[in-house]
Amino acid sequence: MKILIVEDDASLREIMIRALKQEGYVTEYASTFSEADIKLAGYNYDCILLDIMLPDGSGLDLLEHLRKLGKRENVIIISARNSLEDKIYGLENGADDYLAKPFHVAELMARVRSVLRRGKTAGELTLEKGNVVLTPESRHVKVDGREMPLLKKEFDILLYFMQRPGHMVDKVVLAEAVWGDYADDSDNFQFVYAQIKNLRRKLSEAGASIEITSVYGFGYKLVIKEEVA
Length: 229
Fold this sequence. Notes:
This protein is an alpha/beta fold and about 230 residues long. The protein contains eight helices and 14 strands.
């Protein structure tokens, strides 16, 4: 699960990042309206933690812009302005929850888990492709009904591909999606290659009918084995 934190208070932002990472979430952040706008235009997130008062604009305007783009990310408004008007406006314009500052980290995490559960597409609890069934919330993967153990990043990579079956995925985009803002920003993507190699091996050994193929000069694609030319 990938979460975007839109918050200009650096100390609070770091507290939120640490808490989310401890729960296994991939995090990215923006400290201004313009930074958030750029990230939202280029990437999709499972949840957005949105401050109202940003140095160059209002989080409520960003929320309205998000919905005009047709994006359906879960949004939790987080603000020191605990006004009824802001809360009503945010909820009526697509926010899923509203949390006033100051707040306890435990409450924030509970709100995040709650909106993510509610926000599953059509209440769908699993992803299926071929004979592989992946359950995001419990982080289980089964092949023909048998459990296939995966390490955390292997699971995150498989989840990313199963959410985009048949789509070509650039290695840079994959790295940013799975490792967030802390992805290696150099030209060395050996950490991506190594995780993909291990995941491919485990899928093959488990008898999975899906595989992650290389697209020369671009990246990777998840396909049913019979679809491979």
